[in-house]
Specification:
Distance between the termini: 26 Å
CATH class: Alpha Beta
Number of strands: 17
Number of helices: 7
CATH superfamily: Ribonuclease Z/Hydroxyacylglutathione hydrolase-like
Structural class: alpha/beta
Order of helices and strands: HEEEHEEHEHEEEEEHEHEEHEEE
Number of domains: 1
Strand order of the largest sheet: 7-6-5-3-2-1-16-17
CATH topology: Metallo-beta-lactamase, Chain A
Radius of gyration: 17 Å
CATH architecture: 4-Layer Sandwich
Length: 280
Amino acid sequence: MSAQAHALAQRIARRNVAPGSLGAWWLGGSGFIFKTPAGRQVWIDPYLSDAVETMFGVARAFPAPITAGEAEPDIVISTHWHEDHLDPGCIPELARRRPQAKFIMPPTAMAHALSWGLLPSQVVPFVHGQVLELGDVKLTAIVARHEAGILGWEVPDALGVVFDFDGLRLFHTGDTDYDARIHRALKGTSFAFATLCINGSVGNMNAHEAALLAWQLDARTLMPHHHYLWSRPKEKIPACETLDPKLFEETYRKLGGTAEVIIPEVGRDMTITADGLTVP
């Protein structure tokens, strides 16, 4: 276990969260951790292993900032079954270590999770438009259109998620191409924080499309994701990929967007309040 992973696990465990706020951490890729004032940890799309390198030869760009052996999630959401969102290297271990945790995912992901040994009582199906109320958090599944274009990797039930922590609302796109159904579903909803995928390949918005969606949302703070996870030489990166998060911010400003844009750092402590997301 790296010192970095141990340090993050300790910081999350020790973090006291004030009423009306959330603790937050980015895991890289699409992964985030949120901690409530009651001490519950809500995770979304954690990728903590090297499963993708084992399967496809694509290595992580950085060590996992926390290990499955130290993780203490109460709720784990996977927006779809692709390995960097439903991690075969960490989800089974999390389920063994945290038998009371709930693992929330679309139906096509459930088949994978159950085959890895998760118990049916641990797995909660989640489909577009569904609302789940789980104590101090309410989750709403939002449509996503994640057409990877790779035979066998279709995910028609991929989704985004609206989190409502006692009125403190967040939005996570999951993996998706630009789709007007997303902002239509969110019309009239204000968010303290929204995070949008920007990498621009295998069925995801590029930075310009993500900026357009962000401009159509009512959010206090914005954060790009899915631009920093893989270690690849420049000649192996497709020309269509938009991996510079500053391009997202520049395009958003050109559209007239006024929300604060925060460029994420892996493992950094963050706080979310009704006024948005802040970092030390």
